[in-house]
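Teaching note: in complex prediction, the entire set of molecules is handled at once rather than each chain in isolation. The prompt given to students was simply: 'Predict the structure of this complex.' The entities are:
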Amino acid sequence: MPLSFLKATRYDEMADAQGVPRPHWRALLERLGRMDATAARRSIELTRRLIVDNGVTYNVYADPQGADRPWDLDPLPLLVGADEWRGIEAGVAQRATLLDALLRDLYGPQRLLAEGLAPTELAFGHPNFLWPCVGVKPRGGRWLHVYAADLARAPDGRWWVLGDRAQAPSGAGYALENREILEQVLPDACRDLRVRRVRDVFDGLRERVLGAIEESGSPLAVILTPGPFNETYFEHAFLARQLGWPLVEGSDLTVRDTTVYLKTLGGLRRVHAILRRLDDDFCDPLELRSDSALGVAGLLAAVRAGRVTLANALGSGVLESAGWLGFMPGLCARLLDEALRLPSVATWWCGERPALSHVLANLDRLVIKPAYPNQRFEPVFGYQLDGAARERLVARLKARPYAFVAQEYIALSQAPMWRSAPTSGFARRALTIRVYAIAGADGYRVMPGGLARVAHEGTIDVVSTQRGGGSKDIWVLDDAPVTPGAPRGAGPAAAVARPDELPSRLVENLFWLGRYAVRCDDKARLLRSTLGLQVDASAFGHALGVCRALGAVAPATDPAAALRDVADATGLAADVRRLAWSASQVRSRLSERYWRTVVGLQRQLQESAASIENPREALERLLVALAAMRGFASEDMTRDEGWRLMRLGRRIERLQSVATLLALQLESAAATRPRELEWLLDVFDSVVAYRARFTGAPQLRSLLALLLTEHAHPSSVYFQMAGIGAELSSLDESLGSGPESVLHGSLPVPTETQLEAVERDDGAGAAERSRIAAQLRGLAAGAGALSDALSRRYFTHTDSQLQSLAS
Amino acid sequence: MQYRIRHETVYDYQSDVAHAHHLLHLVPRPAPFQRCLEHAVSISPASVSRREEVDAFGNPVTRIEIATTHRRLDVTSEMQVEVHPRPVLRAADSNPWELCRARLDFDGLSPSHEVLEARRFRHESPHVRIKQQFVDYAADAFAPQRPLLEGAVALMSRLHGDITYAPGETSVATPTTEVLSRRRGVCQDFAHVMIACLRSRGLAARYVSGYLHSRPPARAPQTDSAAAAVAGDVRAAARDEARQRLVGHDASHAWVAVYAPPFGWVELDPTNGCHVGIDHVAIAWGRDFGDVSPLRGVIIGGGRHGLAVRVAVVPVTPS
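The expected output is the structure of the full assembly:
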């Protein structure tokens, strides 16, 4: 029984009631009208491809599809005219100012509570009202640095505030990424319509967050993330790259004598400001939630001492309750002496007796929501309840009225979507917009644009990214006269990461990225060469034995299946996953094309697992991708200590695999058989190098000369050892030497006589082969030991066990 | 009445602790009917930094940081406190509980300072949930229009009778709902359940931590060492040891204060089923244990650890 108010005509963003396009849409629509169906489809496909290529993801907890789900962007932007935007802009800036003042009072004198202008229930009852923060005065006197408002447009055409994001607002990074993609999909429209730039709003955020720093030297600001499992981790890494700030986790930071430090490769480095993407109650296990493993013990003491700036201040989460909405006009008058510019959606906080009576009498027209974020209560539409369910709700409201909020139902405005067949016009979807304000020296600056979030079905009025809705870019049209060479902000100053700003955890992941890249490379070549041997049963048997010994092929399976064997923990598929994981951990340090290759690598593996593609071709493609990553790493990455440790990781891994493979060959009954030797040369991509030096069928002695001691051959054991030595001494130079960082073991350098001997089939030949094999195994073990020593020296302090005590 | 109190907490760690932050609530707060004459907290090993502050609830708090590698932490608090007898209150003279609750609700008017203060202590807090089962449990005690203090005393007696004092069976992490269903716990649990029953009805109640002096020959009131609040087998062993050492001594204790106009805050000890009097010495109060735990900390390293807590409350004759 739909009620009459539900049928209210929705506002159409694009066209008026007569179906005539609104003036600010006309230019875009004319342009789109000139596109044929193919061009339109191409735009949609380009958008999807750019999202996948850029690795734009949104993690959904418990998503059976896996941790990362591609971001959903409609290529058609939401247009907002210049005049209309001025109203939104002023309203959002005012609201940020108001909320900042509200926080100042709630964590300070609490006058508003004493005057009865704000209910204590909403402050003291809120799980994010942090008592240890009462009395704290943040450096610079600013509580709210980054704020976001969720707005919706009612049928009357006005924008209303649905909710406030004051904790650690997400989505701004996605908004920037959306714009980057649309600038490629609709470049001409973007330019000709004079769409305002969104990126500039972040310029100088560093300076503003850092405020007036008394200390000399270059102040350090970091982004604190809960880690890659967070649903918006993509955005954390994206912002880190955009702002040029290190992306850190709680365990990367430590507090010593009320000062926050970043654990870096070069030791502890003072941190002056933290842009947090971690909820405030998780930020300090000493004073806040003691069960938090994500925070930094002593952080609050550092804030209290005025030694570090947090954006946003700890405790700002208390504002995230719909209960506050109804009090905003009164608070605005009291705190700012102004009228509230942007109205909130009509909201009744049930803690007031008259409000509760109103809500109970008008349940059919209202949406009931929890007042506190930790309540287990999904928003419910009153009209959808009947009989027992309705009685239960009424009983709950009466038992604990202050824990509930009722909001008037708003029929959200609709915007056109490009996703359906363009020939049959646009589909329409309900939407809300998220608008961002960033604190500046003289008030708040509002990002001209933002994130439009779209419901996943046409007339659904619940918009949620977690529930599978999509997004749109917001284009704010500029009507200011064109000024030649519009000034671009100064940009993030001094974005160059200094070597001593490299977080140890990041460097550790770079090291492992190097190791996994080589491990994937080695296993892929091993499988590829082995698959090529299938016509020769005896050589194939030997190769398969080596593959199994190295874990590249699981017992009772064959090399053709190895690529698809996702269950095998030592298999190639698992190593590609580890490679991608390490890469995701250092995402903020990788170039765009490097990251795209990693994303493509994973996708390719998923696809080939599902397809019947020839496994050899799949492996060759994998090898090309790995070669590209190698190239990007050497072309695109800053050659700092992190890069050096990544190279060291590569060399150590390669040394282990070359030494082990050669040892296996030497220990095998087929040690001197030409077919097997040729296979081994193929595994090392050394067939050409061999032929350039030696003629005739492959011989073990010549192969050893090439793969053991040849200085110029990049697959040789010597080459790996020389590389390790060079990287170690250059690390010692920059970071001070450590006695433990040396490679134990020595290069087997067989004499002419010994080389003669290895070819023999008798006992003396076998003895000589196993002597060299033992030396090689010692070297492989030495490489492993060096890896552990490096971990101890540079990384281990990052995973020291933290414990919380209470007695 | 004057007491000399010594409260010693010792952590023995299996491996080195490289760095430690601790938060102590070991200095008596200003409180009605008691006066602190002197106090001192000594800490070994020496801390690199030590700050004496006052928290948002008015409790003295000591923050320390230890930067030297250590295997043992020894924190000893000593104090001399004077406690005065409280006037006997006629429970029947307190306001009906519904009226008290209504006075705590927001009404758009400016509340008195006292009411504003009481409103801090009527909501959920990390260790105290608000649940219908707590409302139901206390339904008999809070008949309509019953004077609040009568109801609170009845609730306290009921809890004292229903819940068995059982050291070592619960920890700081045991939810109040579980304590109520299993009916076993220590003083902390008695206090948390009683607070949950009061707050679930919309009343204001706070958690008070302190010490209790038990006088022979009367049956020794039940107290518990905070050691009982820690889980883990190694720790359990250490705790058993600690408890044996505690024979004949008193231990750290916890009780409840309920806001009962017109009397203001009235303190009740549900573990012993009695009013708080000259045997009780308050150290700190807050919403629940988490706000006032005597020693809280985050350490790097340490491995498994043993914990021993010793408390001695000795009456002294003022000279």
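Point out the following to students. Residues 1-6, 60-67, 485-497 of chain A have pLDDT under 50 and may be disordered. The first strand of chain A starts at residue 57 and ends at 59.
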